[in-house]
Amino acid sequence: MIINSEKAISQMKALGIPEADIRDLFRFRYNIDYDQTKTGRLFMMPERCSNDIEVLASGYPPAYLIGFVDFFHLKINVTPKVLIPRPETEELMGIIQNRQGRTLINSALDLCCGSGCIGLALKKMFPQATVYASDISPYAMQMTQKNADENKLEVYIALSDYLDYFVYKGLKFDLIVSNPPYIKNGEILDSSLGFEPQEALFAGDDGLDSYRKIFASLTQVLNEHGVCYLEIEAANADMTIDLAHQTLAGYNVELIKDLSNKDRFLRLTKKYL
Ligand code: GLN
């Protein structure tokens, strides 16, 4: 069915789609300047628009229809096989820039890279560093490569089950950053999360499986003066911190809150630092 722009906009707004997303859908998916619709101009929408509205009504994330998100001023392409970068993760990039901006980072790793957004932001922040991005999903590796190429940033991309590849290769890093899966199996999710790759979200019955894996080998891949930042599930922060204390003797575990005051990130360093 062909509908006009006025109808499309009112239907999208009724679904609660943020205006910035509607603007991007118009511009990048329908080739229509959204701002012109505000002057009272009417456009006929392309045919796929009414189908898109149905899809959006089921909770499908607009970012997958737009095809990319802005992350740390990088254009990060996304498809339903990679997680959509979140504002909290972008916030973590700002925190790292503030906290590590004056330290010498020669090597950095984005563990569980998905779209590659973290690794590419790290390469942008620390251009002199050798940056690796790894994932267990070959598709995520392809996506990271595409995003690296389009942003003209050079990162090394590795297939790795958590830190296994790096332990095996004997590689060590000054900085390790990860937003691993951290949702408890069986947790009821917002409908939009149902469209994202489930293996990027779920981490066992207590949501801690990914941290168990990371903590088990972290000391082998983090340089003496290295620092590791992890995104965590706010509701599970105490358990994640306990696990870090139990398995990483000799490490400081600092909890950092996000802008909504949620317990969102851990910063791990050797104690004497
Ligand atoms: N932050 C994601 C959410 O919206 C979860 C991502 C993850 O599991 N790392 O819940």
Task: Tell me what you see in this structure.
The protein is an alpha/beta fold and 273 residues long. The protein folds into 2 domains: 5-66; 80-270, Vaccinia Virus protein VP39 (Rossmann fold). Helices cover 39% and strands 20% of the residues. The protein contains 11 helices and 9 strands. It has helices spanning 5-14, 19-29, 34-37, 48-57, 62-66, 87-100, 117-125, 138-150, 164-169, 209-221, 237-247; strands at residues 68-71, 74-77, 107-111, 130-135, 156-159, 173-178, 222-231, 251-257, 263-270. The strands form 2 sheets. Strands 5-4-3-6-7-9-8 form a 7-stranded mixed β-sheet, sandwiched between helices. Strands 1-2 form a two-stranded antiparallel sheet. Helix 6 runs parallel beside helix 7 (117-125) and helix 10 packs parallel to helix 11 (237-247). The protein is elongated, with a radius of gyration of 20 Å. The termini are far apart. The mean pLDDT is 96. Glutamine (GLN) binds at residues 86, 179-183, 201. Glutamine binds at residues 86, 179-183, 201.
Annotation field: number of helices: 11
Q: What composes the largest sheet?
A: 7 strands, mixed
Give the low-confidence spans.
none
Residue share in helices?
25-40%
The CATH first-level class of the largest domain comes to: Alpha Beta
